């Protein structure tokens, strides 16, 4: 029952048909609903009057006694027929049925003679147009072709394929086309099979590829592909978009023709036929497109509804198909015209009726149509109206209070006011569609409403309804009034001192200012009452320099925006130039070129100073390192000299040689054998016993010489760079321990001349 109005709906609708010349035709139409119901028929939108040739049967069907494609007066029985049904609830119109005459043209493609070598492929084709589509059969030597032979393939479009030709396939072929209108024969063609099967290699080649087809769902598509080559190529199919072809309803006819049964919209696409040489990548391809159309069908039907007067009724009708269907709305069989209170949205899939009244009560139909077919669904709108409802409110007036406020007032209805529970004020911008309307509820004892938050300089429409528990009254008369214009808001103002006699006033453009024509700028000395100005500035100006000012006084600057409704509130700022003058005296203007040069010189000096400082630090570090190293060497030499006994000058050379020789020998031994200096050898070379302090130093020196990890145990300076100066010591007392008298006194020591 979806898509039907219970008061009036179609049970059977007329369908498309192909009529035979001079034969009767019946178009069926069956309606159910509340009687009495009147049924009429139209052809191409014109009412059909009963006549001897066409009249309506008792069940509502249309009977055409002798269908004629062209009558003597030039008229035709072909066209689009629809059935209309009407009762006191409304009128509905059926889908349009397309009626065409059965015809058959002459063959425009006849089979051609062919000479093909044995083992090859032969193809014959004949083509003819007709309604309905003619069935084409093939005859060989005046006998129907044996379709049980797997080498013979008959395609629906009038193609005969013969593969693996043999000598017995030679003969005369012709085709026979048949439909309800006629039977026709094509011309004959001779097939000659010559020679024996060739073994010469031939590249694969596609003789005929698939054609572009446009079909309707549930039909059958045959995509032809016939290929030759030696060896015989393998034919395969694929979709250009990479999607799988599938297996359900798929069949291969002959050696490579693709047949798809029970077509769906998903079968639409570009199909590629490929002929491959066996065992190689050598291939040839051909492609054709398949377009599958689907008649319009409803996804969501409109539903019958009941609504009180003054409310909104919405019908939804969603249809699908390929190509996408167009949706048309009918009201009692007539095309629905949109208006202020009737709107169509979402590609006509939604019908909205605002502020419904009794005149809107009708049967509404949704008609979906595309090139593959049409369908319709209907629904009824019932407008609820209770007896004893109030009459419309009276004397509606609207007065402008401000740029954003309007005062609306009214008087109570003239009739049936006892059951009123309140009023509803309907508000809308006059330029907006009805669906943009909004409401404000008002108590039953109130007869005025202050409507706020409106837009300046804008027209608004108002009407009132009185409500009871059983429904609403009809709408009052509509009144339209405009809000006042609004002056601009205060601009943001900033003051910047340029020099001792000039300041700059700047402000920011803002949408908060509203519509404005420009700005007015005033300024004055604070001790004066008279302003200088106004300075009129365009709306796109955002800055202005005020010059020739007195630096000794304080100034007041005022800025405001204005439009055709007047001046807005002003923004005031105070500014003093005295501080600028004082800063100028204390800090005279600089010579920029000189300062820039000085800055460059200072920068260069800083860089040079840094380099010099780093160099000095490096030299200091090196000096400290080498100085520390030198002190270690000097201390070593001094200890050796202090521990060396005084000998006569005559023995100095020998002793020096011995010492030098011992030192070198010891160094050679350390270099070669890694051994330490022999302590007995030292005692033999230096038999004298020094004082206690010298002995301690000698022990320390000897210890350092014996320490294999001490880098200073052997001086790196050759001994022959030093000389020992012998001085005459004071007479010493005898050493009670038998020490050598040649030992030096504690406060004496050799002098280093080196």
Characteristic key phrases:
single chain; 754 residues; mainly beta; Immunoglobulin-like; 5 domains; six-stranded mixed beta sheet; 5 helices; 56 strands; 40% strand; glycoprotein; Ig_sub2; transmembrane
Domains, number: 5
CATH architecture tag of the largest domain: Sandwich
What is the count of DSSP helices, taking H or I runs of 4+ residues?
5
Main beta sheet: strand number and arrangement? 6 strands, mixed
Residue windows where pLDDT falls under 50 for at least 5 positions: 641-679, 681-754
Rg, Å, rounded? 60 Å
Shape: flat
Distance between the termini: 133 Å
Structural class: mainly beta
Task: Determine the fraction of residues in helical runs and give it as a percent range.
Answer: 10-25%
How many individual β-strands? 56
Describe this structure in words.
A hairpin with a 2-residue loop joins strand 35 (326-331) and strand 36 (334-335). With 754 residues, the protein is mainly beta. Strands 2, 5, 6, 9, 10 and 11 form a 6-stranded mixed sheet that branches. Strands 13, 16, 17, 20, 21 and 22 form a 6-stranded mixed sheet that branches. Helix 2 (592-642) packs across helix 5. It folds into 5 domains: 9-101, Sandwich (Immunoglobulin-like); 105-282, Immunoglobulins (Immunoglobulin-like, Sandwich); 301-384, Immunoglobulins (Immunoglobulin-like), CATH 2.60.40.10; 393-482, Immunoglobulin-like (Sandwich); 494-577, Immunoglobulins (Immunoglobulin-like, Sandwich), CATH 2.60.40.10. It contains 5 helices and 56 strands.
